Amino acid sequence: MTRVFSGVKPTGHLTLGNYLGAMRQWATVDQYRADALFCIVDLHALTVDHDPARVRRLSRQAATLLLASGLDPERCTVFVQSHVDEHARLSYLLECVATDGEMRRMIQYKEKAARERRHGSVRLSLLTYPVLMAADILAYGTDEVPVGNDQTQHVELARDLAVRFNQRYGHTFVVPRATNPVVAARVMNLQDPASKMGKSDDSGPGIVYLLDEPDVVRKKVMRAVTDSGSEVVYDRESRPGLANLLEILAACTGGDPEKLAGAYDGYGTLKRDTADAVIEVLRPLRERHQELCADPGYVDGVLREGAGRARGMARPRVDSAYRAIGLLPAPEAEAVALDAAR
Ligand code: AMP
Ligand code: TRP
After folding, report:
1. CB neighbours (10 Å) of residue 66?
2. Catalytic residue at 196?
3. pLDDT of res. 326
4. What gap in Å lies between CA 148 and CA 271, rounded to an integer?
5. Predicted local confidence at residue 148, as pLDDT
6. Which of 44, 106, 107 has the most ligand 2 atoms within 8 A of CB, as the residue to mutate?
7. pTM (2 decimals)?
8. 194 phi/psi in degrees, rounded to 5
């Protein structure tokens, strides 16, 4: 069976972009057709200035929202990255395969490092982040990585590292590939359609959070910036604000942005319909989230079991990577204990 792995970073409240660009496909398609793992990648949240209590809170919230979005722990594995040591173990080996030039070429690094540098310094982990992401993917023999297209370059790197490791040290890793959802692969900020709707930014009015109340969602959509001109046409280049609304509406209703454009003669009705569609898509998710919050023991149990299962899958492959690259196999635990007792 195809192995699928994807992850979400607990750096902010999850957004409509996360849902339409990733989570919805995980819940409605991927968990049924594949052997799928979904990971709250908390180690990745430490690559920029962070508040420990907030990361903890957001990790738990992300886990709860993944389950609320319909991931079924009987069908797929939901777990927290830091609960499985194999990610960090493998990341170091892959740092010995990747080059610094490769890291510095990553678009997301360039963008984020520039931003961080303005406030002070850039954590080294921001540079090596894509290697840890490659470790996340390769540890599980992943075939497919469903992500929004902002992550395609990172998955390409994971491919390159897998191929290079296999060539140098013998076949160890499956070479993964990225898969993108068809519509709304990139949901843009409602106030700034040139940048993606990202949870780590704090420009609240342009971002629809999954837990926003319906009237807040409506307000944000109604105030979305649109482009000059009044005719409704779908053109990403010259009318990015409008195109974003059409894509969101299409993603929520299963329509086609180009066809939808023809059905509207003004921005007002388009915005109203888009707001309604988003509210309806988020309604069941919010309801289920509330139920799950009332039962934190359940979420803990899912994460405990998920980590156990994930560890069992990752361990053998990471162990064989350690041997392949030239590290001496660790003596058996019992032998070490015996020696110590002697
Ligand atoms: P992140 O929020 O960066 O941890 O991303 C989690 C997943 O959601 C990744 O697969 C991203 O590609 C996807 N994603 C995040 N923001 C957006 C967005 N605005 N549009 C589409 N996909 C997104
Ligand atoms: N870097 C991804 C993002 O920002 C999150 C992520 C980390 C991930 N590890 C992963 C996604 C492994 C897919 C597979 O969205």
Report:
1. 24
2. yes
3. 98
4. 24
5. 76
6. 44
7. 0.92
8. -85, -15
Name the residue of 18, 26, 48, 207 to mutate for ligand 1: max ligand atoms within 8 A of Cβ. Answer: 18
Q: How many residues can be counted in the chain?
A: 342
Q: What domains can you pick out in the chain, each with its CATH number? A: 3-180+296-341 (3.40.50.620), 204-293 (1.10.240.10)
% of residues, the chain, pLDDT over 90:
85
Query: Does residue 149 surpass a pLDDT of 90?
Result: no
Six-digit token string for 147: 């992500």
Going by DSSP bridges, is the β-strand pair 192-196/188-189 parallel, antiparallel, or unpaired? antiparallel
Give, for 78, the enclosing helix (H) or strand (E): strand 77-80
Q: How far is the CA of 6 from the centre of ligand 1 (A)?
A: 11
* CA 220 to chain CA mean position, Å: 23
Indicate if 220 belongs to the active site: no
Cβ 327 vs Cβ 319: under 8 Å:
no
The rounded distance, in Å, linking the Cα atoms of 286 and 68 is 7
Sole residue written with tokens 């979904």: 38
Catalytic: 199? yes
Please identify which residue in the block is written with the tokens 């059409």.
246
Query: Quick one: average pLDDT of 181-187?
Result: 70
Question: What values do phi and psi take at 146, rounded to 5?
Answer: -80, 115
pLDDT tens digits for range 301-334: 999 999 999 999 999 999 999 999 999 988 876 6
